[in-house]
Structure formats: C-alpha cells, structure tokens
Design a protein that fits this description.
CATH topology of the largest domain: Jelly Rolls
Oligomer: single chain
CATH class of the largest domain: Mainly Beta
Number of helices: 11
Shape: globular
Mean pLDDT: 82
Number of strands: 11
CATH superfamily of the largest domain: Jelly Rolls
Strand content: 15-25%
CATH architecture of the largest domain: Sandwich
Order of helices and strands: EEEEEEEEEEHEHHHHHHHHHH
Distance between the termini: 81 Å
Strand order of the largest sheet: 2-3-10-5-8-11
C-alpha cells in the first residue's frame, strides 16, 4: 500500500508559468512543465479530478513506480525520455515523488476538444479514443513538447497568437490521429471586410497580447475557421503576420523618429531591447542602429519626427498618425 504522505498539488511544481489557450472554449487547454530536481519520498504529487485527457511527455527517464487513482493501485513502468503517456484524469491521481521529475503535460478537457472539432467541422466526432495509460513515442507530440519547453523557459510570455496557433495545430493532430480522420467541409478564405478588420486589429495591437479568439470574434468566425481562412487569404499564419507588421512598424519608426531603441521595442510589441535587436537583425540582416543610420540619412529630404512630436501624433490606433502638413 502506498504511503501518501503530504499531498502536493502539481501546480506548485510548475516550472515557469503554465501556458493556456481557450481556442476550444473554456475550460481551456493548458500546457505546463512539472519539474522536481530531487526525490521527495515524504510527498505525493496530485493532479487530475477533471473531465479531461492528460498527455504527459517525459523529458528524462523515470524508473518504475506506482500511483493511486480512485482508490486503486496503478503500476507505472519505466518511462523513457520523449515517451508520451495518455491518461484519463476524471479521478484525482496521487503519485509518490520518489524520483526526480521533468515532464511536459498537456491538459485536454473533453469539452474543449469537442468544441474544437465542431469549429473545425469534423462530422460525427465522438471524442478522442485513447486508452488510459497508453504509451507512445509520438514524434509529433515530441515536436510540440520541445517547442513549448522553449516557451516555458523564456523569461517573457509567449505571444498569445503563437500559443493559440500551436495548440490549434495540436488539436488538429490529436483529432486526426486519435479519433480517426473525419470528413471536413472545405471553406474558403476571409471575405474582404474580414481580412481588412483582422489586419486593422493586428495593427492596433502590435504592442499588446492578442489572441486568435479576439480576431475570430471580430470576423464572426470560429477560431479554427478564422485561423485557416486567414492563412488561405494571406499565405501566412496570424502570428507570422503580426511579427512582420511589428518589424515593418519598427523599421518605419527607426527611419522617421529619433526614439530610443528601447522605446521602439516596447511600442512594437517586443519584450525588450535585446529581443527587438535580435529579431530585427535576423530579419533585416542589419542591426537597428545600423538600419537607422543607413535609412534615416539616405536622402536629405527624408522626413523625421522628433520624439516629442511623435508622442503627440501617436493616435488611438497605436501607430503614427498622418501628418496633415505632408
């Protein structure tokens, strides 16, 4: 019989901030990293107690052990790095922490997956068919997991559009792979007014956290339909479009203003000066300061705003207002 000891809720061992998306409605899908560098034999880790599947990607070897769920003893075999284990977590699970842990967990509420499938127009979807305890070396889940490791390790929050894009892709993969391929009605791209509205909202929120749901609701579409329609219309994901608009806006500010680089970084939605410099240099093959020197003085008649003038001209749209004298 397992001696449970003190119960530790899994949220107390989350490394960094858990990533969440409501692309399938609420409660949303959540991604977290559970990290414990040393054994805690007097404590048991608790998770579950919700109507959901849990997919756990192990990042290090975890020796054979056992846990309890709904009062029953459940033996757990050795887990190897990059193995994924699925489990129903309707009932809480208690797992004695006799070994160090490093695990990426995907909490997948059944209601969220069902709503995602309906938005994607999957016919007759009846839920994921995954036996509890199934172990697999799924390379696609491995790829999603390692990408989220980078997001979780970053000191700055991952852009919500990027998170939504990743989890939308994960949902699509899980529904196709673990519920059988369903017929999907093909839909076209965005209507002109929808494309215009989506791009306006992105431009107005370059410096803010923006979600797929905000864009989809403005276009009166489901999240899944909007994401695919935007890509079909523009050839890019919403997140990629956002990143390119941030770079374009920053290039414009470098050329037309004398704002400090740190202020341009914040205005354009970059986490800090370093993030801005690295992103800009990678995209433009030129550091921001060098770009400003090259472009700002390229022509004698080039128009430049001073920092005080720029701040006076910044409109509600979050960008440069038109100069009425130009």
């Amino acid at each position: 019989m397992i001696e449970a000891g003190d119960i530790v809720d899994e949220d107390r061992l989350v490394a960094g901030t858990a990533i969440r998306s409501d692309i399938g409605g609420k409660p949303g899908i959540r991604v977290l990293r559970t990290l414990s560098d040393a054994p805690r034999p007097d404590q048991s880790l608790r998770w579950g107690g919700m109507d959901a599947h849990l997919a756990r990607l192990y990042l290090k070897t975890t020796p054979q052990s056992q846990m309890t769920q709904a009062g029953k003893l459940v033996p757990l075999p050795v887990r190897h790095p990059m193995e994924t284990v699925f489990r129903d977590i309707d009932e809480p699970c208690d797992w004695p922490m006799i070994y160090p842990l490093d695990i990426i967990s995907f909490e997948l509420p059944r209601a969220a997956i069902q709503l995602w499938a309906e938005d994607a127009n999957h016919r007759n979807f009846k839920g994921l068919v995954i036996p509890s305890g199934m172990t697999t070396a799924d390379q696609v889940i491995q790829s999603f997991g390692t990408t989220f490791v980078q997001c979780l390790e970053s000191p700055d929050p991952a852009p919500q559009l990027f998170v939504d894009f990743l989890l939308d892709g994960l949902c699509g993969y899980l529904v196709d792979r673990y519920a059988g391929r369903e017929t999907i009605l093909k839909r076209g791209g965005l209507a002109p007014w929808q494309e215009r509205r989506a791009k306006e909202i992105i431009d107005q929120n370059l410096g803010a956290r923006l979600s797929l749901r905000t864009l989809a609701e403005a276009c009166r579409l489901s999240v899944t339909h909007f994401s695919r329609a935007f890509r079909e219309t523009t050839g890019q994901t919403p997140h990629r479009w956002l990143v390119e608009r941030r770079l374009q806006r920053s290039a414009d500010l470098l050329k037309r203003t004398d704002l400090p680089l740190s202020e341009i970084a914040l205005l354009c939605g970059f986490a800090d000066h370093s993030h801005f410099t690295n992103s800009f240099t990678r995209a433009m093959r030129m550091a921001p300061a060098a770009y400003r020197r090259a472009m700002g003085r390229a022509a004698e008649d080039d128009f430049t705003y001073s920092a005080p003038t720029l701040r006076a001209l910044m409109g509600a749209r979050g960008g440069l207002a038109k100069d009425p004298d130009r």
